[in-house]
Design a protein that fits this description.
Keywords: Membrane, Transmembrane, Transmembrane helix. The protein is mainly α. It is built from 3 helices and no strands. Helix 1 packs antiparallel against helix 3. The relative contact order is 0.19.
């Protein structure tokens, strides 16, 4: 059996920055969507508003938008964490090469 070369992981600071940037962007988008979902419940002034807010919440739940927001938030934290891990790997790769 022939011997294979060890796998070399080439991760740069650019990879880390891209991952963190996309994660933070997605996190802001997620926060905006959460605020957009919550605002109708703070503007209730009459029974008609309560009914329309309940119908809105029911419609959003049926379409799965709250679950989408939850997964977007989870994914944004995963991207940020991935970027931080990429930064550590880039640092260790640069120290190994010197």
């Amino acid at each position: 059996m022939e011997r294979k070369e060890p796998f070399e992981l080439k991760i740069t600071y650019n990879d880390a920055r891209k991952s963190i940037f996309i994660g933070v962007l997605l996190l802001f988008f997620t926060i905006g969507m959460v605020v957009w979902l919550i605002i109708p419940f703070f503007t209730i002034k009459s029974i008609h508003d309560i009914i329309s807010s309940s119908l809105l919440l029911f419609a959003l739940t049926i379409t799965g938008i709250p679950f989408l927001v939850y997964f977007m938030g989870f994914f944004s934290f995963a991207l940020i964490q991935n970027g931080l891990i990429f930064q550590m790997l880039a640092v260790s790769n640069s120290k190994i090469k010197k």
